[in-house]
Amino acid sequence: MAQVDDFLAEVLPRLRAAEIALHDGDAEPRGELWSHRDPVTLFGAEANRTGWAEVAPTFDWIATRFSGCLSLEHEVVAAGADGDLAYLVTIERITAVANGAPVTYALRATTIFRREDGVWRAVHRHGDPYREPTA
Predict the structure, then answer these.
(1) Fewer CB under 10 Å: which end of the chain, C or N?
(2) What is the C-alpha to C-alpha distance for residues 22 and 106, in angstroms, rounded to an integer?
């Protein structure tokens, strides 16, 4: 359990900062969170990409859609870490400014990380819309 706790302590603050910046229109912190060593993959709510050469410009494109993060919450559903691989499953609840107006949405996100040179780097993300369960 200590390995998972250490992983979360390192990754969650970096992930939060990267997602806030992305929704403020700045993709650079998200790019810093990610590995630039292939293989990397993105199965996003809006785009699917393979390889850093495709993933990096997609982050830039996403950042152009937003101009202000009003709130961001990560609900950790599950996490695991073993050796140099780890995963994080979250529900992301976001309110951000898009096209001059606030928009609120939630995503189910699964991110896989690989430790590179002692630092956890994202290598895969799958995100899709999340809808609150109904009774």
Answers:
(1) C
(2) 15
Exposed, middle or buried: residue 5 (CB in 10 Å: 0-12, 13-18, 19+)? exposed
In this prediction, residue 133 carries a pLDDT of 83
Distances in Å between the alpha carbon of 50 and those of 29, 38, 54, 84, 111?
20, 9, 6, 21, 14
The answer to whether 11 touches 43, Cβ cutoff 8 Å, is no
Global pTM value: 0.94
| C-alpha 4, offset from chain centre | 18
The Cα–Cα gap between 109 and 123 comes to 13
Q: Where are the alpha helices (DSSP H) in 1-135?
A: 2-23, 28-33, 52-64
Q: What pLDDT is stored for residue 123 in this prediction?
A: 98
CA–CA separation, 84 and 80 (whole Å) = 11
Phi, psi at residue 123, to the nearest 5°? -125, -15
